[in-house]
Fold this protein.
Amino acid sequence: MRYLVTGGAGFIGSNIVDALLAAGHEVRVIDNFSTGKRANLNPRAELLEADMTNFDAIHPFFVGVDGVFHTAALARIPFSIEHPIESAQANIMGTLNVLVAARDAKVRRLVYSASSSAYGSQPELPYRPDMCPNPLNPYAMQKYVGELVAEEFFRFYGLETVSLRYFNVYGPRMADEGAYVTVISVFRRQKKAGQPLTIHGDGEQTRDFTHVSDVVRANIMAMESPNVGKGEVLNVGTGSRYSINQIAAMIGGPTVHEAARFGEARDSLADISLTTERIGWEPKMKFEDGLNDLLSV
Ligand SMILES: NC(=O)c1ccc[n+]([C@@H]2O[C@H](COP(=O)([O-])OP(=O)(O)OC[C@H]3O[C@@H](n4cnc5c(N)ncnc54)[C@H](O)[C@@H]3O)[C@@H](O)[C@H]2O)c1
């Protein structure tokens, strides 16, 4: 198969590219290296260095492509608050451009990297895709709009789409600055530098941390499964959560407390039963193992 990965030089996109190439597929990548790194990009992938907000530049590159993994986004919450236009242009208009280009090229299916941030705060845990979205910041809203547009492209144009809502992804190549600097990245850096681990708020906030290898498998299963393609929204998380205090204790060493962050959910936890039912996916990486792997590098 010939696949196109938008954002193929980013954290998650580059891991998808590697897995596709290892499985013997041809891979094309669109990336403008705004947050992605050249070092992440597999040299066996065919690169179009372009901005997805430039429709004419990306449109021809979709011809002959069987499936698209749309991971490119400006995935930074503070950036989306400070630069609402630029952020919406990339995350909403960029997604629309990618969908139109895929539709025109008669691509069979597009798997959209959605975000658990669409849930925001909910009255109960765990989060299920049938709950009413409650985005708490511009980035979360934009990612949610992308899901709606992807679903619309199936209804209006017959382009098969699936949205995967990732829950706090961590693993090799994860960002060490920005909104998705998971606390894990920050703690790892602080531990290496011999500094105390910084905890925002009381540290009892919890997150469902998902290893990138599991996210990659979910993408490929969503691309290949005969049971999805109609704009479904599926959670990609583990179904277990850890508090920031627990992670600090696992890493060890002194801690310091700072003010809680504004615009972020208190808890996140995925109900993955629909994902398992539809595409047969379950996470494999245990958090303790994934964390130890990262800390050993
Ligand atoms: N990392 C997480 O925990 C997480 C959680 C939920 C959802 N997501 C979603 O997963 C996707 C990938 O996230 P990531 O953590 O790998 O981020 P990342 O920043 O590492 O990767 C995004 C990639 O997209 C590229 N890009 C950005 N704007 C572009 C544009 N206008 N044109 C072309 N390329 C562009 C960047 O250069 C980068 O390579 C994003 O859509 C993000 O919203 C990530």
Observations:
- The chain has a mean pLDDT of 95.
